Amino acid sequence: MKDEGSLFEEIKSSKSDKRRPVRRYADGGSRPSRKVAESSPSYLTVEVFLDALTQAEPRPDDAEETTGVKKNYAERLSNKLAVLVANRLRETGDFPGILPNPDGSGRETRAASGAAKKLKKTDVRFSTFDTGLELLVSIKTYSFRDARKDKTTGQVVLGRYTKNMVRNDHELRAEAMDHHERHPYAVLVALFFLPMRACDDAASDKSSFAHAIMTFRQRAGRVQPTDPHQLFERFFIGLYELEDERRGELFFFDVADRPPRRGRPRRQEPSKGEHRRGLLTLEEMISEVVKTYGIRNRRYIEWADEDPDARPELIAPEEAEVDSDVGDEEEETT
What we know:
Blueprint: H1 4-17, H2 49-55, H3 67-91, E1 110-113, E2 118-121, E3 124-128, E4 132-141, E5 147-149, E6 156-158, H4 165-182, E7 187-195, H5 208-216, E8 234-240, E9 250-254, H6 282-296, H7 317-333
Parallel strand pairs: 4-7, 7-8
Antiparallel strand pairs: 1-2, 3-4, 5-6, 8-9
């Protein structure tokens, strides 16, 4: 008969044999890998905004009464826009591993947020294993005019693009709050896409575009990591053409800029050495995001004798760390 000691050793040995093997990486560590949803090999990547519009088709009519049809289109468009923005940020060379990937994999991956580490879906995300979330781009679309049914005739009457603005602002507020609470140094950017015709629906009042600026301006302007969590570092309205030969044209407008009360904003040529105002191209908006990210991470500074429209070049992370260490040593010796 076996004694208690030998029985204990047998049980311990059998349990250890059933343990799941620890995955080892090239660097010898056992850190968990980031799961990325796979996509179809036939997935078409998105190089320009027109690709996103085309691949999100079919687009239902504004008067479509089935809410689910419109919602599905909005989700398809948002997913395509996320790939477009991630592709453009990836091209800068400053965000290796940014998601989603060109093939669409990694869409809506989840990131820990808030004190309880609750996982929230993200649109465009750049993070590292060492520092966590560093850059997040949140994408919202408002694709259809507000529709209501006339009580007398029963006909669908199309209005403006204003009904759900406040709801979108509340969602963005919660998103910024949760992510900044856990990652106060992360740079959060909001992109809100509207058809260009939202600038043309003003009568005696302001346009839907101007209404969007008034709604979202309070949600932007976070400069320091100690600023309120519910704010985004940058916020842009994406205005795009839907019809005719101009279909696929896309411009961005900073909510901190001065909009027209009625009509479309213009593209303004800045004076030498000054920042561009008014409408921005996709490339110019991406440059603004890179600058904001670089400033937050001590990897970029705007020089007075450089062209403000030039593509921003960030200092390599290791060089930024050296500069930071030197500054800390100087403070300690004073």
